[in-house]
């Protein structure tokens, strides 16, 4: 099977403030906690054979990793996505590079297939490591770029990450891409073996709520902390006694409405996280995994990923350095543009549902601040994740104003 045949490409309307047709995050930086930066800067990364060369990384809307890279010598911004078997190039970048001889293909998403183009022999450089990809996918990233207010050129999949050893340090917002087999962690690190599924997806074993470990796709590109197939959830009665709502989840293959809930505990080896926001999917196409673990959960740890060696190393990050596992308390799934936020889903039983919100309504201002291109770059997008009981004033395109009281609804 070719790498392009397994491309995890999703968006989660309940989590993101834009339609994510190909799994990219919103391009907004979360300020690094100053206390964590001052007190934890000296954390040791001595497991490397030689000191790693660190580069800054952008953490977008709390959980999406943006790095500088080059494609055919052209400098770009790229999203790191271990859940995509092949790298994805935007159509404008492909045209700029003269990659016009596209081979028609259909790729696998989480819930189905979609048509794309395929190009051959693409030169990619991440940090100082150069590789020539035998193939890469060309797809439309326009919706993502428009929502971000800046171009998204490329999504770097596991085909690129397999060329080295990736270290992610969330305390100081930096990454290193060193030679494969260059890291051996000390006693403070937990090492997990990487599996390869039937569709080349990377996976690790994880325990849900104390149950036996199961294979979950390792998915740096997912803004959902945890996804599980409905078949697994039903077989193990995971939702019994839980409050459950809905969310909109989509990708190149279309949109599906999924269940939203909170998992009591998720364990990766000896490391556990409690109260993890999760989704249950009826359509799960992977035959080798029963779900995936995304960056909000993985971002609780320092990470070293060595795909070629089949190893994932994790170490608990300082609390103030961990990526946020954000939980929506509005019930509004929103698609962002430079002028408004369009409602694409209203979660069942949520504050928005109880207040009578409807799909298609447009928000033009939040707490008196108009929606513009800065919405996804500053902190305004975080309004949906505020404390329960908070009140947010929303102005609609028709001139009316509504006050929405945030609450936990799942």
List the main descriptive attributes of the protein structure presented here.
single chain; 410 residues; mainly beta; Cathepsin D, subunit A, domain 1; Pdz3 Domain; 2 domains; 6-stranded mixed barrel; 6-stranded antiparallel beta sheet; 7 helices; 42% strand
3D structure, described in words:
InterPro entries: PDZ, PDZ_sf, Peptidase_A2_cat, Peptidase_aspartic_dom_sf. Keywords: Hydrolase, Protease. Pfam families: Asp_protease_2 (PF13650). The two termini are 39 Å apart. It is globular and about 60 Å long. Helix content is 9%, strand content 42%. The chain folds into two domains: 1-327, Cathepsin D, subunit A, domain 1 (Beta Barrel), CATH 2.40.70; 332-405, PDZ domain (Pdz3 Domain), CATH 2.30.42. It has seven helices and 29 strands. The chain has helices spanning 34-40, 91-96, 142-148, 158-161, 230-235, 295-298, 351-354, and strands at 10-12, 55-56, 58-60, 64-71, 74-80, 88-90, 103-108, 113-126, 129-139, 154-156, 165-169, 174-178, 190-193, 195-196, 202-208, 214-219, 226-229, 245-251, 254-268, 271-281, 291-294, 301-306, 311-316, 332-336, 341-346, 362-366, 369-370, 391-396, 401-405. Residues 4-40 have low confidence and may be disordered. The strands form four sheets. A six-stranded mixed β-barrel has the order 15-16-21-17-20-19. The chain has 410 residues and is mainly beta. β11 and β12 form a beta hairpin.
């Amino acid at each position: 099977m070719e790498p392009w045949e397994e491309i995890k490409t999703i968006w989660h309307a309940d989590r993101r403030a834009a339609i994510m047709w190909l799994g990219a995050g919103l391009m907004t930086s979360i300020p690094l906690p100053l206390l964590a930066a001052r007190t934890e800067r000296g954390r040791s990364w001595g497991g490397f054979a030689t000191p790693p060369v660190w580069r800054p990384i952008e953490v977008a809307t709390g959980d999406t990793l943006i790095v500088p890279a080059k494609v055919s010598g052209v400098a770009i911004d790229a999203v790191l996505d271990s859940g995509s078997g092949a790298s994805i190039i935007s159509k404008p970048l492909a045209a700029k590079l003269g990659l016009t001889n596209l081979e028609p293909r259909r790729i696998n998403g989480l819930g189905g297939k979609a048509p794309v183009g395929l190009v051959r022999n693409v030169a990619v450089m991440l940090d100082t490591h150069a590789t020539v990809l035998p193939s890469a996918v060309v797809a439309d990233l326009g919706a993502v770029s428009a929502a971000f207010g800046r171009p998204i050129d490329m999504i770097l999949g596991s085909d690129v990450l397999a060329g080295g050893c990736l270290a992610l340090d969330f305390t100081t917002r930096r990454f290193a891409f060193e030679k494969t087999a260059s890291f051996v962690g000390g006693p403070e690190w937990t090492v997990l073996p990487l599996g390869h599924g039937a569709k080349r997806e990377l996976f690790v074993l994880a325990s849900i709520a104390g149950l036996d470990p199961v294979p979950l796709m390792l998915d740096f590109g997912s803004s959902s902390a945890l996804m599980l197939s409905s078949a697994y959830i039903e077989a193990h009665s995971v939702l019994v006694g839980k409050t459950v709502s809905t969310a909109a989840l989509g990708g190149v293959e279309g949109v599906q409405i999924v269940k939203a809930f909170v998992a009591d505990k998720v364990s990766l080896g000896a490391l556990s996280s409690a109260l993890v926001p999760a989704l249950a999917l009826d359509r799960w196409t992977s035959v080798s995994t029963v779900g995936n673990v995304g960056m909000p959960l993985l971002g609780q740890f320092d990470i070293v990923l060595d795909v070629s060696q089949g190893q994932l190393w994790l170490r608990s990050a300082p609390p103030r350095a961990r990526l946020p596992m954000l939980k929506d308390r509005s019930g509004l799934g929103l698609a962002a543009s430079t002028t408004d936020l369009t409602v694409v889903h209203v979660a069942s039983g949520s504050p928005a549902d109880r207040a009578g919100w409807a799909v298609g309504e447009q928000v033009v201002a939040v707490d008196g601040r108009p929606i513009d291109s800065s919405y996804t770059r500053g902190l305004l997008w975080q309004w949906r994740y505020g404390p329960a009981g908070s009140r947010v004033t929303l102005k609609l395109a028709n001139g009316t104003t509504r006050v929405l009281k945030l609450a936990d609804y799942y």
